[in-house]
Amino acid sequence: MSSQLVKIGPLSQPVSLGVEPATFSADVEAEIDRHLAKYPVMRSAILPLMFIVQRERGYLDPPGVLYLANRMQLRVTDIWEVATFYSMLHTKPIGKYHIQVCKTLSCKIMGATKVTEHCSQKLGIGVGETTPDGRFTLSEVECLGSCGTAPMMQINFDYHENLTPEKIDQVLDALP
Amino acid sequence: MRIEAIGCEPLQLRRVHLENSRSIDVYRRNGGYEALKKVLDGMSPDDVINEVKKSALRGRGGAGFPTGMKWSFVPKDSPKPKYVVCNADESEPGTFKDRYLMERDPHMLLEGMLIAAYALNAKTNYIYTRGEYRYLIDIMDVALEEARAAGLLGNNILGSNFSCEIYTHTGAGAYICGEETALLSSLEGLRGHPRMKPPFPAVSGLYACPTVVNNVETLTAVPDIIKMGGEAYQKLGTEKSGGTKLWSVSGHVNQPGVYELPMGYDDMEKFIMEDCGGILGGKQLKAVIPGGSSVYIMRADQIIGKDVRMDYEGLVAAGSSVGSGGFIVMDETVDVFESTKNLTEFYKHESCGWCTPCREGTDWLVKVFKRIDNGGGRPEDAQLMLDLCDNIEGKSFCPLGDAAAWPIQSAIKRFPEDFKKRLATDNTDGHGPDRSP
Amino acid sequence: MATELAKVTINGKLFEVPKGARLIDVCREKGFDIPSFCYYADLALQASCRMCLVRIEKMPKLQTSCTITVTDGMVVTTQSEEIEKAQRGMTEFLLANHPLDCPVCDRGGECELQEMTFDWGGLEERFTEQKNYYAERYLSPMVANDPQRCILCKRCTRVCDEWMGEEAIEAGGRGSHTVIGTYLGWLDCSQCGNCIEVCPTGTLLDATYRHQTRPWELAQNISTCNYCSDGCQMSIGSRAGEVRRVVARDRYVNGINGEFLCVKGRFGHPFINHEDRIRTPMIRYKKGGKLIPATWDEAIRHVATRLDEIAEQHGRDAIGVVGSPRLTNESLYVLRRFATELVGTNNYTTTDLHSLQSFFEHLGAPLATHRDIRYAKTIVLIGGDPSELQPLTGKQIRQAVRNGGAQLVLVNSVPIRLREQTALFVHVNPGTEEAVLLALADPANDSLAADKAGVDAQQLAAARQMIKATDGDVVVMFDAALSADAQVVAAQLATVFGGEGRRLLLHPLPLFNNSVGAHDMGLMDRHLSPYQMLDMAGDTIRAMYVAGSFLPEHLEQGSDGLAKLDFLVVQELFENATTAAADVVLPAASYAEVDGTFTNNSGLVQRVRQAIPPLHQSKADWMIVDQLAQELGLDFGYQLSPSAVFRDIAKNVAAYSGMTYPALKDESKPVQARYAAGAAGADSTAALRSRVEALAGNGEKITVTPDVGEELFRLGMLTEKVPQFRLLASGNPRPETTAVSPLYQITVTREQANGHG
Ligand SMILES: Cc1cc2nc3c(=O)[nH]c(=O)nc-3n(C[C@H](O)[C@H](O)[C@H](O)COP(=O)(O)O)c2cc1C
Ligand code: SF4
Ligand code: FES
User: Fold this and answer.
1) Whole-angstrom Cα Rg for chain B
2) Which of B1, B205, C370, C510 is placed for a possible disulfide with B201 were both Cys, Cβ 3.0 to 4.6 Å?
3) Which of A50, C125, A25 is nearest to B432 (CA)?
4) Which residue of B355, B362, B366 sits with most ligand 2 atoms within 8 Å of its CB, as the best mutation to test the pocket?
5) How does DSSP assign B21-86, residue by residue?
6) Is residue B404 within 6 Å of ligand 2 at its C-beta?
7) A125-139, B272-286, C209-223, C226-240 — which is least confidently predicted?
8) What atom of ligand 1 comes closest to residue B90's alpha carbon?
9) Does A3 contact C462 at a Cβ distance shorter than 8 Å?
């Protein structure tokens, strides 16, 4: 019930980033407002907002992190501790297309290893690496819930299932 | 991929094969939102809870806790707002039923949530979906808009004085966020660490308010319970666990898929060999993990000719449990040492790191698995792994620790040969244990 | 109210303990040792280390005793095969990835992980895999970090959040990759170092102490901090006559501050052995000449003769006597006796920035101890910024709100960091805090106050309401900068707000470690300010005897009176603006080199203990004065014994009567001075009202929260001697590399530090 007569500035940040907070288009700001409106507590929107910043800026870079902190009245360390907990959030640059091959049991016994190897050969990068042109990053991830359609991979948010070498080629070649 | 009801009329899967099954019109034309209407025309919240109690519905998320009882724990007199949170984090390896329910029949979930919200007087409710299921969140958002347009969401639903909001929320890649208290931490914008129980969410959950967390399949069962009545629903299953259950079948079977079976379906062998079309390429069945990765692994000879009844009691009697119904079938080519290593790597990756035994234990176990895999196995390793599991089981902060221990314990006990052959050689050559990486 | 009792059986023995007590505490209190890492009294529960497992009848599996509150009829087992195996298992897990580099670890010998392993661990080492590796690094000039040693008890992140409200250090990553750290790896906080203190292992380390000595080689002396008025208890670790580190670790000291210290208390000590310390007495034989080293006898004789001459010529009042609020009670008391009994002057005072004389003259309620603050139900903070100026008070307020559910009413023109904890923030125009105080004392002034302070009158009513509705303690704190009239009103608030089941306690916020002692010793009873002294200097005052020095603030504002003096004597640690004008400079001993007492802002009289012998030729301030007195023919009869001085104090200072050093021995049972209840002025608010009416009461509202360290990092005569503080003062620049090898540590040369300035 803190009743303040004038708006007080944002929280003092424990770490000076030496950067200005990111800025976003009116549409994106509106989208962010829609998410914030869902919750009684601003901080609850942290994951949706991080995905938006990640979409807009490629990854959670310092300006993006500072933006998130100011927007939700948090400290940058709050953003950092959350961002590094979840496997889908990136605090380091990542390829335009993130190829995530499921390596968990059902996919494994249905040939996940072959999928990884095929992608790896095709793109000339190992697991965890990014192509020099910054287009592809190849990762192995844990169960994505398509064990019945194994083996599979997810590229950014799209599922590609019942994979065969041919199908993988089609999918990768079709990417814009 | 097959999606089929076997041994019962499709309940949860009634609409999945219809054209456009996810649209509100198709849903309504096929009995959709009648249960909600029935509830709003003259059922009290307690009536609803009683029907659910009578139905003997048990939570489908894995813990199998009686749903009606869980609902009745929510303090009615509490002045705080109440929340219903749908657990759509479905990350248990081998489990993908929730995904198809939401993809093909989103309104069934909404109706179930609305009824739950009515029963618990919850005004704001969330669907926590794992971040990888982004396309399902989009589907649910569309469904929510349709529902709102049809006056099924928002103020004075269907002209009643019941008002309620449902929002989608995205996870961001963390299995532990399926654990209900971790889910709530995550929904509050924190790291997905589990919380102490007590207090249980029903008393102090989201924002320290009374909260019910239910799995997708649990909530989608509610409309039918209301329509056919609790008893009728219970009779579809067994006395202790009513209704039907979805099984996500994967691995070496000819017909993987999502199968709806009555609780207590009589024979697991028949299910594998006939309903799922038998083992891929006519090979021999070697092992089954029947309830998602977090349950004991079963040997073929614990199934073949044993008439294993597919319900909570039946599976426990057979030496495993229902868990989330993630049914992973493995043929003779599978090396259980490797399958267990694979799952242990999963638990290490997903351990939230909060508590010592799970964090350090899974890390240590994976290192042992890797060393053995690289030919560095030692005779004492089996005993070491069992002892580490024992130090994790029952000591960890949340059940993930136990879940990490069980597969290993059961694998070493039930498939000793797959381990022994790697531990045969004593490569310590008399100089004490090899300390090289 | 009587606490309900519960019967618990522990290992077969029956005990009656307060219902709701925490099981782990109960067991330990009853003599059943229970290991733990993450459990830390008065911090949020963690239950993550899983060391404290016990068996409780009728409960499935082992339970963590840190999370269990005892209920009637509870039957507990703390020792059994099963439990011991679990404890062995947990220590084994914790050691798995922990580098066993204890020989080069500064925590060796003080490490809880070592102790737990020794007491509860297994003997064989079964972990033969490769340990996870993280490089050692610096997080700041004060904090070194070896992530590999971390056991993730998260005490550090909890104190950073719950004590300091800074959340500068957090856990990042997940699972076995969880690391304690900070975004982008540089710690830009208030550098309190409490994370280091509470760390049970060698993960967070005092960067200024790295590889200096092994902890057990240090002599530990319990003493009182010489910076702010909170008076934290600390253990000064010294070796070979040199202070190496300061800690508040509970194995050495157990004072009002627990293990809390602020950046100054913990890292501000290197001035003690600094090369610039004044080594010998020095005499300036003619004005404008140089200071020339002299023997003590020469110097004392010189001072005695000159003071005699000046008293002869100009009378006794021509000699001014000034004492610093940093000196011990003993020194200030002897100085005052020197002024009144020997010199016989009326011109004496202390070089504080503010005086609490009027407050104490009208004191109408007990002073709040820091414990009172922690358990208060309502806290009213008028002006000031405790998190920067009285950090322990700031921490207690924060915990009272966050862990104790207290409500904080903040009356301030600046949105200080504590606003994050406020229930009601009365955001006033600059310099109008007093107006709100006036309204609190008497509703009749609401409209006046609201108008001047530029706040909503309802807020004033709301504030009074919150206080009146409180069931429990109300603590009113105020900045010592408040005017004398305001202090009178504050001192009398109990008459307005005292009531059934409600105690009103007062907590003044002066600036210096012995500001309150300086008042108690009577140095302020002439209501003379240092500014007035300086104005008289060279005019009615011809000579001045200064123990300590004037503050830059005084010298900037006051006329350059010092230059006009015929004769100036200064006792100091370092040469500074005051000694520059002195005719005689006498080397004084620092607080670490003397015995005595300081009195903190709750009136607690706490011991100062000699940790190292006085450096060079320096002497305790009071001994210098005593020696001079003898030269002038008066022997106080103390015979160089501080306890003799204190006995004298106890005899003549009413509030201290009955106190002795032995009675002050135990820092865990501090003794509070008993101040006489002062009389209320006829209408104590009248004077204040006219002041408030005179206020301009307009001007821009201040909306920026000051940066962390705004005050803490401001260099003073002592902290400017500490290179690390120079770095902080110049914005704590992040070095090119923060990597370290175990045998190398940051050393900051004055030049480097200045370079950043
Ligand atoms: C490690 C762990 C992971 C879990 N993951 C899920 C999950 O992905 N989906 C789910 O519905 N329940 C999951 N659960 C179970 C939930 O904790 C909770 O019991 C369930 O959501 C309650 O809903 P129900 O009663 O309808 O089953 C998990 C539990 C644990 C311990
Ligand atoms: S068992 Fe412990 S570390 Fe593992 S997930 Fe649960 S709380 Fe986290
Ligand atoms: S002290 Fe109880 S779990 Fe750590």
Assistant:
1) 23
2) B205
3) C125
4) B355
5) TTSHHHHHHTTTTHHHHHHHTT--HHHHHHHHHHTT-B-SSSS--BHHHHHHTS-TT--S--EEEE
6) no
7) C209-223
8) 8
9) yes
Note if the bond before B199 is cis, omega within 30 degrees.
Answer: yes
Question: How far apart (Å, rounded) are the C-alpha atoms in residues C233 and C444?
Answer: 44
What phi and psi, each to the nearest 5 degrees, are found at residue C133?
A: -115, 135
For residue B354, the CA-to-ligand 3 centroid distance in Å is: 11
| Residue from C40, C49, C63, C152 to probe ligand 3 pocket by mutation (most atoms less than 8 Å from CB) | C49
- For residue C601, CA distances in Å to C323, C437, C511, C512 come to 18, 20, 9, 9
- pTM: predicted TM-score of the whole model, two decimal places: 0.94
The token duo for B131 is: 């971040």
Question: Ligand 1 mean position to B269 CA, how many Å?
Answer: 27
Name B279's bridge partners.
B253
Q: Is the pLDDT of residue C356 over 80?
A: yes
pLDDT digits (tens, 9 = 90+) for A109-164: 999 999 999 999 999 999 999 999 999 999 999 999 999 999 999 999 999 999 99
Q: Decide whether any atom of ligand 1 lies within 6 Å of the B176 Cβ.
A: yes
Name C15's bridge partners: C8
Q: How far apart are CA B408 and CA B58, in angstroms?
A: 27
Smallest Cβ distance to B353: which of C51, C128, C176? C176
Mean pLDDT value across residues C436-442: 96
pLDDT of residue C751: 58
Strands B257-262 and B2-5: parallel
In terms of residues, how long is chain A? 176
Cis peptide before B198 (omega within 30 of 0): yes
Res. C351: pLDDT tops 80: yes
CB contact under 8 A, A147 and B186: no
Secondary structure (DSSP) of B233-262: HHHHS-SSS-SEEEEEEEESBSS-EEEEEE
Residue for token pair 């009290």: B44
Closest CA to B409 of B433, B434, B392: B392
- Model ipTM? 0.94
**Cα B80 to Cα B94: distance, rounded to the nearest angstrom:** 38
**Alpha-carbon distance C284 to C294, whole Å?**
10
Cβ C188–A15 below 8 Å, yes or no?
yes
β-strand pairing of C567-572 with C584-587: parallel
Q: What is the pLDDT of residues B273-317, one digit of tens each?
A: 999 999 999 999 999 999 999 999 999 999 999 999 999 999 999
What is the rounded distance in angstroms from the CA atom of residue C622 to the CA atom of residue C640?
A: 9
Angle at B106 between CA B290 and CA B188, to 5 degrees: 80
CA–CA separation, B347 and B365 (whole Å): 10
Give the per-residue pLDDT at C750.
54
Q: Which amino acid is at B83?
A: Y
Residue type, C451: D
Can you tell me the distance from the alpha carbon of C622 to that of C608, in angstroms, rounded to the nearest whole number? Answer: 14
* Interfacial A residues in 122-161 facing B (CB < 8 Å): 141-150, 154, 157-159
Chain C contact residues (CB < 8 Å to B): 45, 47-51, 53, 61-62, 67, 85-86, 89-90, 92-94, 96-97, 126-130, 132, 151-152, 171, 173-178
CB-based contact B360 C45, cutoff 8 Å: no
Q: Which of C664, C632, C668 is nearest to C650 (CA)?
A: C664
pLDDT band for C738, please (50, 70, 90 cuts): confident
Mean pLDDT across chain B: 95
- Name chain C contacts of A86, Cβ cutoff 8 Å: 174
Bridge-based pairing of strands C282-284 and C291-293 is antiparallel
